[in-house]
Every structure is written in C-alpha cells, then in structure tokens.
Design brief:
- By secondary structure, this protein is α+β, with helices and mostly antiparallel strands.
- About 40% of the residues lie in helices and about 25% in strands.
- The strands form 4 sheets. Strands 2-1-3 form a 3-stranded antiparallel beta sheet.
- A hairpin with a 2-residue loop joins strand 6 and strand 7.
- Helix 2 runs antiparallel to helix 4 and helix 3 runs antiparallel to helix 4.
- The longest helix has about 30 residues.
- The protein is elongated.
Length: about 200
C-alpha cells in the first residue's frame, strides 16, 4: 500500500514510514482508510506497470489523482545485448536437448553423455569381441541386451541426433545475428524446430 508525502512529493512510502513520520498521531490499523492529507500524506491506488519493450523499463512516477503512474525509459540494453542473451538461450537449449533422445522405445535414452561410452564399447568389442550380447543401460530405468551391431546403430543414432541439434542451433544463430531490430530477434521462436 503506497503513500505519497505531499510536501516533498516523495512516493512509494510504506505504512511503516508514514507511521514513523507521524509518531504523535494515533493511527488506525488500515492507513488507507485514514485521512492523512491534513498531515501531509496521501494514499494512492497501485496500478500495474504498462507493457514494456525489450529495451525499456517501467519507472514509477508521482501519483496523479490518487492513482499510481508510470513512465517508460530506456533500460540500457542494446541490440547486441539482446542478441547475446538469445544466443546464450539457444546454446542452453541445445545442451539440454542433447542429454537425451528418443531411441528404441525409450523417450529419454542417453545421448550426449553416452557418446564416449558407446565409442569405447564399440572399439573394445572390435579389439576383443565379446562372447555374446552385453547389457547396456539405455536410460535411467531401461536396459538392453545388445550385440556389436546394436551398439553401432545406437552410436550412429546419437551422432545423427546431435548433428541435427547443431544444425538447428546454426539456423537459429544465423537468424538471430541477421535480425535488424529487437522485435525481429524476439519474433524468432527459439523453442521450435528442434529434433524430437
């Protein structure tokens, strides 16, 4: 519940600040219901800040007719800042999506984290072939009994999936860098078009 000092025009004052400024008054619990104008303070109704563009911020200004007022001013973000933020978000999305992929009936089969293990298992199996299928953990709750052909197929699927993620990242990066203004950058849906 904001208050305004009518003498200094300071606004955004809290209930506690008004009470501290008027220690000689017996004030009701609900200060908004009290007539504080004779004592130099006024309650004003809060209003939500207006929508802002990527390069603006809403700043509260002195109330008018008992209603909170806002103005828009630059927030200091440049187009380069916005592009860097979006590129970082794209990189984060690519990394998160690379952690798992749908494979062999499992929606969250290990992907990026399994590349080294699959490569090592394939190389080891080529040097010393196993006696038969080996147990492979495909996801936190799924195991498979695979032979060398199955492991190679899984490795190839991981590679294709990871490459598709980088292809999408490259396309989004190019679009963001080519955007001529903030609205164009924000119009790019960085969550769409990733491989499933």
């Amino acid at each position: 519940m904001p208050f305004q000092n009518l003498e200094t025009n300071a606004f955004g004052l809290t209930d506690a600040q008004v009470r501290a400024s008027l220690p000689y008054l017996s004030l009701p619990r609900d200060l908004a219901a009290a007539d504080l104008e004779p004592h130099g303070f006024a309650y004003y109704a809060e209003s939500p800040p207006p929508p802002v563009a990527w390069d603006e911020r809403a700043v509260e200004i002195a109330p008018v007719d008992g209603v909170q007022q806002w103005t828009l001013e630059p927030n200091g973000r440049t187009l380069s800042d916005l592009k860097a933020e979006r590129l970082a978000a794209v990189a984060d999305l690519r990394w998160m999506k690379a952690q798992s992929m749908p494979y062999d009936g499992e929606p969250d089969a290990y992907a990026d984290t399994a590349v080294t293990a699959v490569t090592g298992a394939v190389v080891a199996a080529q040097i010393v072939p196993p006696d038969g299928p080996t147990t492979w953990q495909l996801s936190p709750s799924a195991f498979r009994s695979w032979d060398l052909t199955d492991l190679i197929a899984y490795g190839v699927a991981i590679r294709a999936y990871i490459q598709a993620l980088f292809d999408r990242k490259q396309a989004l990066t190019a679009a963001i860098l080519a955007a001529e203004d903030g609205a164009a950058v924000l119009a790019i849906d960085i969550t769409a078009g990733w491989p499933a």
